[in-house]
Q: What sequence folds into this?
């Protein structure tokens, strides 16, 4: 198992997915959120779990084809979860996805810098 | 010096007396609709459009009386009870048929009365649902004697419990040791017990009581009746039958299941009368039924008919008159008209002289489509109210392109094969597009009025359902194959029926939004002042755009300070709306859709707004047991 050539970017995504997962779990079990036990929040829990797994794999694999494919899937996950967060009226979830998006772009920049070298 | 001293003494006295004076100030909510006139209006004015944004939770109480449904469990509860504030106490009944007496400023429970009823059992035959209690107080109470103030709680099996409002004990002098078996009068086609879902209305020392039942199961179900009862003893003083005598053994319902209103001064009680069975096929009831789907005025002392106004002729759409008429005096053309406003499922607002039944604004008889079902003769015309503008449009609002696209064109394809010739297109065997259908338009919450300005506010849903009649033989075969999914049997009728929302395969509405609105009218002219989409649709937790509005159940209330308070929407939020503009000024999330009309009261100088957040699975699967009071911060 190689060490990741993505630095802060991927850890940013990992942090955002952990945060998103925690928010979604809280939303799912807390009646006061108004979205508890809803299919939409369950979808976000699954999406955040997948994002966490994928970003950990990317962090551990380093930059190869699999990591690049996973990063593409992570981008879709970020976009989908941010949209879900908007319609669930959960600004914290949208904020977490904003951090994930920043992380994703950092990964992109890091990758570009690596290729230039 | 002397003046200054006197002023100080006066200020001190005022300071000492002020809490006392404030404590004496109390604004009640003594009836399901605030008052017996069905106005849903409070003179409370502490909470204003300027400060409503500061409104916060004063107290919240979970009654524990909720069922979330599921296999082998009691079906989901429907808690639609407007709490009362009277006798310096908040009273509320639950879907498990318990009455809570609560301290109005703290939410602390004083006592609980629990009716023994079959619906408490997990596998109860009947759904736990409740729409509240009634309150009566003796005009000349006898000191030291109990039951001078009484609460009345109805149950699903037709029992009316009379409870001492001070102690929570049964009043032994009422009925049989405190419980009146109303079902004793259920003698014709007693297919189901009289369900006392809606509390009676109080007129002097009398209760006027209707009942609910089960729709579309039997054509010969119990025919509609209303009872005038002695408030102290439960003795029946009169009854009123809604179905002509020669039809009662073959045609049922046309009952009064919704709230009624009372004009004490003129001794009148106003009945919203529902539609007869079979709800969707009238070939077996071609005879005139003048009280069916009507607003009927009775002399409250005798039960004699004062006047009747039929709102749908030969009803084939289950357009029950379903809310208490709102009684209000309207200054018009230099005189004051004692009026009533009858909101309806069809979205028409009938404004009538409440003493004569004559229209204040014209009612037009318009030609409507004919039935193509053998044996059926639909009425050639139906009553139409152009002014005030109906809450629902006359035509199908068009296919919702997003839903059509998402469903692969299913909406357009289905629409093309259904019959749709606008309002009052009769049900057919191929399926008829019905808008508004049985769920409204305006539901049982009805509207609210500011009697000082004659401003009337009402929430309404824009729903589209498909009505399909199924020939008896065909239905029997279908029922054997797929069970209850075949539809409603309407046993005894040549036609069974199937009704369903016009959705695509993903459950998206096939018609254009908005799905719910809130409207305001000036009753002096009938003019629509404003109309806005109201509430938000919530599906799988996702909130849809505000411009789509929401289907609503439960009514609004108006306060003197120019605010509307309303729950009602799918999104489990309660809102304060500016009466002048219709803009939402405040909203707050509660445990479930607050489908009960809220109550507004003032206690010890503080104004409270009280919502029961219980839900109704017609609106949303979310149900709850939360009673929550709001007030301004100290």
A:
């Amino acid at each position: 198992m190689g060490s990741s050539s993505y630095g802060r970017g991927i850890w940013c995504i990992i942090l955002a997915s952990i945060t998103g997962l925690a928010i979604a779990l809280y939303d799912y079990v807390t009646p006061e959120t108004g979205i508890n036990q809803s299919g939409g929040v369950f979808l976000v829990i699954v999406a955040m779990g997948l994002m966490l797994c994928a970003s950990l794999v990317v962090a551990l694999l380093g930059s190869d084809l699999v990591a690049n494919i996973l990063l593409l899937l992570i981008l879709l996950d970020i976009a989908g979860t941010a949209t879900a967060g908007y319609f669930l009226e959960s600004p914290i979830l949208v904020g977490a996805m904003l951090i994930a998006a920043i992380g994703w772009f950092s990964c992109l920049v890091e990758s570009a810098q690596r290729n230039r070298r | 010096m002397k003046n200054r001293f006197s002023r100080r003494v006066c200020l001190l006295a005022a300071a000492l007396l002020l809490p006392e004076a404030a404590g004496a100030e109390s604004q009640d909510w003594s009836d399901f609709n605030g008052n017996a006139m069905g106005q849903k209006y409070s003179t409370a004015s502490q909470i204003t459009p300027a400060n409503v944004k500061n409104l916060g939770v004063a107290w919240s109480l979970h009654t524990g009386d909720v069922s979330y449904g599921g296999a082998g469990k009691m079906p989901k509860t429907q808690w639609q009870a407007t709490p009362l504030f009277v006798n310096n106490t908040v009273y509320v009944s639950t879907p498990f048929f318990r009455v809570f007496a609560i301290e109005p400023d703290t939410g602390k429970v004083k006592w609980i009365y629990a009716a023994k009823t079959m619906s408490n059992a997990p596998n109860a035959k009947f759904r736990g649902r409740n729409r509240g209690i009634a309150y009566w107080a003796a005009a000349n109470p006898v000191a030291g004697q109990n039951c001078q103030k009484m609460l009345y709680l109805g149950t699903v099996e037709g029992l009316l419990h009379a409870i001492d409002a001070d102690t929570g004990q049964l009043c032994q002098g009422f009925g049989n040791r405190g419980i009146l078996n109303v079902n004793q009068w259920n003698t014709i086609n007693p297919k189901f017990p009289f369900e006392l879902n809606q509390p009676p209305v109080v007129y002097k020392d009398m209760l006027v009581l209707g009942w609910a039942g089960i729709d579309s199961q039997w054509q010969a179900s119990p025919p509609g009746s209303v009872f005038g009862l002695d408030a102290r003893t439960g003795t029946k003083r009169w009854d009123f039958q809604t179905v002509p005598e020669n039809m009662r053994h073959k045609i049922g319902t046309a009952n009064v299941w919704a709230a009624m209103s009372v004009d004490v001064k003129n001794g009148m009680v106003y009945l919203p009368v529902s539609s007869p069975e079979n709800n969707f096929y009238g070939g077996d009831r071609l005879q005139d039924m003048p009280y069916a789907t009507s607003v009927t005025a009775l002399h409250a002392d005798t039960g004699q008919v004062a006047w009747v106004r039929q709102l749908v002729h030969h009803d084939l759409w289950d357009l029950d008159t379903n809310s208490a008429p709102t009684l209000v005096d309207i200054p018009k053309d230099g005189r004051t008209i004692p009026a009533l406003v009858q909101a309806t499922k069809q979205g028409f607002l009938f404004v009538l002289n409440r003493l004569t039944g004559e229209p204040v604004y014209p009612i037009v008889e318009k030609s409507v489509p004919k039935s193509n079902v053998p044996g059926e003769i639909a009425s050639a015309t139906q009553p139409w109210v152009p002014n005030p503008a109906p809450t629902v449009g006359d035509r199908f609002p068009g296919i919702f392109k997003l839903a059509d696209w998402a469903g692969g064109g299913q909406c357009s394809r289905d629409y093309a094969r259904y019959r749709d010739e606008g309002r009052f297109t009769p049900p057919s065997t191929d399926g008829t597009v019905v808008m508004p259908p049985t769920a409204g338009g305006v539901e049982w919450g009805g509207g609210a009025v500011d009697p000082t300005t004659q401003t009337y506010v009402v929430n309404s849903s824009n729903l589209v359902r498909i009505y399909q009649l199924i020939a008896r033989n065909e239905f029997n075969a279908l029922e054997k194959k797929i069970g209850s999914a075949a539809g409603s049997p309407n046993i005894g009728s040549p036609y069974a029926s199937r009704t369903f929302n016009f959705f695509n395969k993903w459950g998206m509405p096939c018609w254009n939004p908005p799905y719910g609105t809130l409207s305001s009218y000036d009753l002096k002219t009938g003019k629509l002042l404003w109309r806005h989409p109201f509430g938000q649709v919530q599906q799988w937790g996702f909130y849809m755009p505000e411009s789509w509005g929401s289907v609503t159940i439960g009514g609004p209330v108006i306060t003197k300070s120019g605010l509307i308070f309303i729950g009602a929407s799918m999104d489990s939020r309660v809102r304060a709306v500016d009466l002048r503009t219709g803009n939402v000024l405040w909203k707050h999330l509660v445990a479930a859709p607050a489908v009960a009309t809220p109550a507004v009261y003032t206690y010890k100088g503080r104004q409270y707004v009280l919502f029961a957040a219980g839900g109704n699975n017609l609106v949303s699967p979310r149900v709850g047991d939360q009673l929550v009071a709001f007030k301004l911060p100290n």
Remarks:
- Residues 43 and 90 of chain A are 14 Å apart (CA to CA).
- Chain A is about 80% helix and 0% strand.
